[in-house]
Please model this.
Amino acid sequence: MATATISTRQNIRLTAQKLFRERGYAAVGMRELAKEVGIEAPSIYNHYKSKDDLLREICSDIAAQFFKAFEGVDADEKSATKKLRAAIKGHISVIANNLEASSVFFQEWMFLEEPNLAQFKKQRHEYELKFRDIIDKGIKKGDFKPMNIKLVTFTIFSALNATYDLYRSNERLTQDQIAEDMANLLLKGLKS
Model:
């Protein structure tokens, strides 16, 4: 069976994700990263112009995947419950399929430099508004009980964004188990 080879650029990114997750962005230098990848330190700059460029790529890629997953929420669906369930499952799917990159996305984004930091915050806010819209419409239709939409959204994201830790636990929960149970738990709290 043939094994797929990855490019040096991909290897740098995968190694960076691993090191950033394990030790934190601030603790990892480009020289150390080059050494881990097995290339000379100056050659790393042929692939990424800076460590911030590397972090920006990781965060932007995960953000794009969250937006793409949200496209799976049926705009014509009338039930806010079904829409929010689909959004929750899509969000968890991105995390489950990108554990190391998701960990970096959630824990290290604050190290982005301007203008990347401002762009990241803008994307994050736009994504959050998609969830708020579903919740707001659900409250107005009576699908959900009246609650503070910002607090509800904050609670949902806090719960969802912590799920990457569940994949490293000894319980061996599947992505579907986590998504289904998390959706049930969160939606139960919103029901009137």
User: Anything to note?
Assistant: Residues 116-141 form the longest helix (26 residues). The mean pLDDT is 93. Residues 73 and 86 are 6 Å apart (CA to CA). The chain has two domains: 1-49, 52-190.
